[in-house]
């Protein structure tokens, strides 16, 4: 297993050629805050289903939207989708 530096794993904020790994990605407090945000979105999606009736489809739309956000945010915005091939 070689550790190659490619364009997606370089830290652009500094001049050094450092590899971003899960160990130096972010600190514990940031990870906990991000987890709480994503878990709250997921729980909100589940809670919205309590308002679902056959005559009102909007709670299901809200559920699908929050559920998609709960998975899309960590994979794209928070930058963890490109880390599968690092190790």
TrEMBL record:
<feature type="transmembrane region" description="Helical">
    <location>
        <begin position="28"/>
        <end position="52"/>
    </location>
</feature>
<protein>
    <submittedName>
        <fullName>Fatty acid desaturase</fullName>
    </submittedName>
</protein>
<feature type="transmembrane region" description="Helical">
    <location>
        <begin position="58"/>
        <end position="78"/>
    </location>
</feature>
<feature type="compositionally biased region" description="Polar residues">
    <location>
        <begin position="1"/>
        <end position="12"/>
    </location>
</feature>
<feature type="region of interest" description="Disordered">
    <location>
        <begin position="1"/>
        <end position="21"/>
    </location>
</feature>
<keyword id="KW-0472">Membrane</keyword>
<keyword id="KW-1133">Transmembrane helix</keyword>
<keyword id="KW-0812">Transmembrane</keyword>
